[in-house]
Amino acid sequence: MNSKKEEENVVIETASRIMIPFIQLFALYVITHGALGPGGGFQGGVVFASSYFLYIVVFNIIEGKKRLPESVYTTLSSTGLCIYAGVGLLSIILSFGMAQYLNYGFIPFTSHFEKNRSLGIDLVEIGVGITVMAVMVSIFFDLAGKEKKDKGE
Amino acid sequence: MTMLIDFALLFLVIIIAIAAVTLKDLLSATLLLGAYSFLMALIWVGMQSVDVAFMEASVGAGATTAFMIAALSRMTRWEKK
What we know:
heterodimer; A: mainly alpha; 5 helices; B: mainly alpha; flat
């Protein structure tokens, strides 16, 4: 949010450069282990988005928009929604009208039914995580982004 | 002992909530709301609902505080009388 060049702080920049990959790794861990323990797609997406918040707060918003442009996060939000809805639709289609509504085991990832089901749950979590991350980042850009005329302050 | 920790956390939560509502400094109120969310997460863990605690710690303390600070960057820091 500080767009002046002379306001940068070496300690904060280095610490956040070290911290951001671990935050993102923890977010991926939360997304993939959502079916077993606490966590899930939404929380993992929020944690992933907060790593971008840290990047935008430490560096300025122009650097953040360079790292994650508007075209990328709008595409990611709809991609996650398509994954989330597509897995459910695929399971309806592939169960061949057996009224197995949203039973992910019918999607043929592997030959085992239970493995298919857990992979389908993981895919849904990944879709939710991508969408939540993109939408949170877009809300933050809309809130923090200044207009063109007072960009200098 | 657990009872003591629970009552201490509840006391701190009430103090922080009253302070966040009555403060005129909006940045301090935002940071106090972040502290409130962390203490509420501890209380949720004490009530064996780890999922809700995770939600409170990530959304309440992380995302909401960042959103409020982002909104504060476009307005004045002090509440008008």
